[in-house]
Design goal:
Chain lengths: ~600, ~600
């Protein structure tokens, strides 16, 4: 199924990525020696152990974007980078710019040091480049690498560990299998899954076994634990292998893990992994706002996990969570100009606190209030670009001859005997127009946030068949379906067990979680009470949307404590989409209000 | 002025300390090698660099308690300990069980390693033992040590640093001066104050200069910063030296620092030093509840600082803060059985969070939900005992011939030509009876928490003279003054800038801050809303007091997020004094309610 984005919000994001982000990240990666490291020459400052994966994600992003925004400069970088990798690959097939230069005698001996993680991302890049027809040289090289991994880990079993401390190779091998159809890659992925958590293996001494999901065999895992990106990359592979091998145990583990996340460990923004110490899932309902970690890569991984789960059917719930992550935590990871990136995505921020944390040298957690161009561990920036470049793949699904529309992103597709063109201004407006040619059956996901639906088919109001959160339409010939999912600001409340949000509410507008910044609302946002959404004023702005709502703020005297209750001052609070925060300088941020 | 405690709450605390805490701490200090270390013999496990100060604080506590609860066993430990110190003191006068054994060539070379801090506590112990007539051998030894310190730091100036990284020596030298009347000790204290912050000196590389208050000359310091115990020990010495030398600059710095604390950096429990990283003052209004550090020693130091400030007049405000610290944060430092101690005093606790933090090996901040018998850094336990043993000294003050009653603690005193016996059941009841013999003038502090005052003199209702938060009485002959400060549960609200308490209120009952624990109220206390205090049921219990108030708790469905507001379930919330929390097993704790 070939999907083409056609205008609208997500096209703009992808174009911004192609024109700005991809090149900017490239420049910063050049400046920080990430491309140079691939030459495998010894340097005074050794590269980071996972520099290879940063470049690999950039290559994957570039592969997708070159299809729609071909750029000779980018092509040159791709080709040169691939050539460098191929040139420096060891005769056996191994490639790792850190180990083969600095620790050749420790190759495949150190479980926690990300070798197979880097290999996995290189494999994903190779598949993407080949599939998009952008470069065909990396794939055979990475197949040789995968063969070598198979030989050492699966055939000879002479390595210092069995499963990598950072899952990724498993899902990459599945992608390699799906692209090459070579069964041994799927087998190897399954082998790594089967082995995980079955025997004691090396872990970080300052961490527990849950940290890298090696505490239990994967089929027995029911609670999402440990480093959130590690966890979700593992779960993606479990869903993939489960689906491809018909392994019910794997699939039910995946469903249980999804349920655990969605019922107990998910931020309203779609973020996961609330604990900054260990960048991890902590425990049920532990969702602090200011100390939230909610790594961009974790939300991206969650979105991919949802997409994989949706392939097994019963997909509306998965796509609802995917939409939440997509329109909030993930989008927030990138600045509106495409140049800066957030690694951590808090739901509350204080300029004063951040300034204090910056000032104390050893302070362990230093919240960042502005997006950065690069990080020491720079996984998120290229991950965002490769993710946004793939949103087209999230929109439609084909199941039993029906074309499912799961995400409302302006696009054209030809599938199930129909040519469909979908136009919408989502996430800012709930109107969707589908122009269909051909005969077939369509299923349109009903968003969880809508308050009413109105449908017209060829201008006539209709009541379509509704089942399991989808609207079904049988069409024939030229058909125009117009749907209006009513979009208005709504309060959302957290479960009673979420301590951080007790007595508070957030505001959603369609799929967007809204937030307030101090630049236009004044400080002390934590004391702001939203009175009602009845009088809310919603307006489109160049950056998206702005909602003004009647609110009250606390006004006390100067005493620190008083027996008199604070006075309350009414004012109009301005809300913007969460994804747009921190684009106007350093600001206090609030999502949950009194 | 000789004050004798007579029954009541504080007598019980002191007796518990004498019968249980002092001996228990002694036993744990023996078991952990703290007394043994004083023998100055090399061991496989070197003692902690500040073991000396732990023992010194125990000696000081023992000195006070031996006066009222003489105990032969305790006396034997005191005498043996003093003899060991005196025997191992170097001929020059130096004594430090760590440096003289393990790093003799680094004596007085390492600013951050607490040598003068330990010396200061040994000096305080020596003064206490001598003044209480419990042991007279330590004082001359510590005078020789102080002379040696003076010789090296002030006369020869050949040491590796000028001011100690942990203030304490300054206030100890003042106490030595006040006891011996030897001017040179006051001069030396002043010298250390004068030098502080005037030139770059060694600091911990992971900390800033504010951490140990060496960022500015002390007379220029206006904002309470850095490690809170260090800060307050310094401020105490500044107040002492300021008062004794008439140094107006020092005194106005002290007043500004007090104001900064009380207006911006004080927990409602009287705790200070909110930041666990660095155990320090952070920035204005940063008073997190669950992550509160609020070290017991810091609240004790604050109480001492208030006491010193009160000596300069205008004392009601200082004693109000002292009372807040005394009846809440400080009292909470010790378990009701006198055996366990808190170092950190949070205002919110979660059993689940604590269990999680315990489970992750490297977790930087692990909240403790039960008091421990000893800590690696065990400053708080003996500090509490020496503090409680001195509460008698906080009750009365003499100023211009008037006897001021500043704390309502059952006691007898003879001062200003009067014999006064004060009886009260505070902090549980606002009735105070004073039986006076003689002629004179009394001033009784009006607590900030009272809602009305009724006075009777010899059975007749009177309206006494009221000035600057004191009630004045001129008495002659046998006089009975009965005062009732109305004590009832009251809501207290934090300043609008305190993010952690936005939209919340605490409950005070007289000087006591109240709290709720999950053992009798169920979990999810953060979502509890107190409806009113009108229907509050207050009852005395063996442990103090219990208040039941109508409240509501949130009840949501099982979904993590919902568009429906939570239902609210009415129930009676049971409140106990904050100081009594964590005496019934591990419990969730809440002080600030919706």
């Amino acid at each position: 199924m070939r999907v083409t984005l056609r205008g609208g919000f997500w096209s703009d994001v992808r174009e911004r990525n192609a024109r700005v982000s991809l090149k900017n990240i490239c420049r910063r990666f050049v400046e920080t020696g990430r491309f140079d490291a691939l030459r495998c020459e010894k340097r005074e400052n050794p590269p980071h152990i996972f520099f290879d994966s940063d470049v690999a994600k950039w290559l994957e992003a570039a592969a997708y974007l070159q299809r729609n925004y071909p750029d000779a400069e980018v092509q040159a970088v791709i080709d040169e980078t691939v050539a460098t990798i191929v040139r420096n690959q060891l005769p056996c097939g191994y490639f790792n710019s850190y180990y083969q230069v600095y620790k050749p005698d420790r190759i495949f001996m150190e479980r926690t040091e990300h070798e197979l993680y880097c290999a996995g991302h290189l494999i994903e890049a190779a598949v993407a480049l080949d599939r998009c027809g952008v470069n065909h040289a990396l794939l055979p090289a990475m197949e040789r690498y995968a063969d070598y991994i198979r030989d050492r880990f699966f055939v000879k079993r002479d390595t210092g560990f069995t499963t990598c401390g950072h899952p990724e190779i498993e899902l990459a091998l599945v992608r390699l299998y799906e692209h090459t159809k070579k069964q041994e890659y799927l087998e190897l992925a399954k082998f790594f899954l089967d082995e995980r958590g079955t025997k004691p293996e090396e872990i970080y001494p300052w961490m527990d076994r849950e940290y890298d999901q090696s505490h239990a065999p994967v089929r027995e895992q029911r609670s999402a634990v440990g480093h959130s990106v590690r966890a979700l990359y593992l779960y993606i592979a479990m869903a993939d292998v489960g689906r491809l091998t018909g392994d019910g145990e794997l699939l039910s583990a995946c469903r249980a893990l999804f349920d655990d996340i969605v019922r107990r460990k998910l931020y309203v923004t779609g973020g996961v992994g609330s604990g900054w110490y260990g960048e991890r899932f902590t425990f049920a309902y532990d969702l602090p706002n200011a100390e939230a970690y909610a790594e961009t890569c974790a939300a991206i991984a969650l979105a991919f996990f949802c997409e994989r789960l949706a392939k097994m059917g019963s997909c509306a719930q998965y796509h609802a969570v995917l939409e939440r992550a997509l329109c909030n935590n993930i989008l927030a990871g990138e600045s509106l100009d495409g140049k800066g990136f957030f690694y951590v995505n808090p739901l509350e921020a204080s300029v004063e606190y951040a300034a204090y944390a910056r000032r104390i040298p050893g302070m362990p957690f230093k919240p960042l209030l502005q997006r950065a161009e690069v990080f020491d561990c720079s996984c998120c920036p290229p991950n965002l670009v490769r993710f946004f470049a793939q949103v087209g793949g999230l929109i439609y699904a084909e199941q039993d001859g029906t074309l499912y529309v799961d995400q409302y992103i302006a696009s054209d597709v030809s599938a199930c005997g129909m040519e469909v063109s979908l136009r919408t201004d989502m996430p800012f407006d709930g109107n969707v127009v589908l122009q269909i040619r051909g005969r077939g059956r369509l299923a349109l996901r009903i968003p969880v946030w809508q308050t009413s639906v109105a449908c017209r088919v060829n201008g006539e109001y209709v009541c379509p068949e509704e089942k399991e959160d989808y609207l079904f339409f049988d069409v024939d010939g030229e058909t125009r379906i117009e749907i209006c999912f009513e979009m208005r600001p709504r309060f959302v409340y957290a479960n009673e067990h979420v301590r951080a949000d007790s007595g508070r509410k957030a505001v959603e507008y369609g799929p967007l979680v809204m937030c307030a910044e101090s630049c236009e609302n004044g400080m002390e946002l934590s004391g702001v009470e939203i009175l009602s959404l009845e009088g809310a004023l919603t307006e489109r702005t160049p950056e998206g949307i702005r909602i003004r709502v009647p609110a009250r703020r606390l006004r006390t005297g100067s005493a620190l404590y008083s027996y008199l209750p604070p006075e309350k001052e009414t004012f109009m609070l301005t809300l913007i989409p969460y994804y747009g925060w921190a684009n106007r300088g350093e600001n206090d941020l609030q999502v949950w209000f009194l």
